[in-house]
């Protein structure tokens, strides 16, 4: 009976559009290069990062250079441990000024 109550609660949430909105951020979240991402990319792919925090990330990056790792984001005003942990798996730290080279073929192709 308790399972049915939980299930009916999910149905109600989905009927009112609340549940689908919560899944949108999970479905569309993708790892992003925080060193080249714009405000729209950051807000669309990171949890609990809105336009204000995304702008702060970009401004910090422009003043201080690319982020070396996730811990470096803690220097940005408004980014704390909890926010960082929610997003750690969706962060890439590639320097946009360094060209990415494709892996070399082993010659056994």
From TrEMBL:
Basic and acidic residues bias: start-end ranges: 87-97
Residues making up the signal peptide according to the UniProt record: none
Entries under InterPro entries matching the protein: Competence_ComEA_HhH, Endo/Exo/Phosphatase_dom_1, RuvA_2-like
Alphabetical list of Gene3D superfamilies matching this protein: AF1531-like domain
Top-level taxon of origin: Bacteria
Entries under Pfam families matching the protein: HHH_3
Residues forming coiled coils: none
Alphabetized SUPFAM superfamilies for the sequence: RuvA domain 2-like (SSF47781)
Location of the region described as Disordered in the Swiss-Prot/TrEMBL record: 87-109
Name recorded for this polypeptide: Helix-hairpin-helix domain-containing protein
């Amino acid at each position: 009976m308790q399972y049915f109550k939980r299930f009916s609660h999910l149905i109600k949430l989905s009927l009112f559009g609340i549940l689908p909105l919560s899944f949108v951020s999970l479905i569309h979240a993708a790892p992003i290069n925080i060193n080249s991402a714009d405000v729209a990319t950051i807000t669309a792919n990171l949890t609990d990062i809105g336009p204000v925090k995304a702008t702060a990330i970009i401004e910090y990056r422009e003043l201080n250079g690319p982020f070396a790792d996730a811990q470096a984001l803690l220097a940005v005003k408004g980014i704390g441990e909890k926010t960082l942990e929610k997003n750690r798996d969706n962060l890439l730290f590639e320097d946009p000024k360094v060209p990415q080279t494709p892996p070399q073929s082993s010659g056994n192709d």
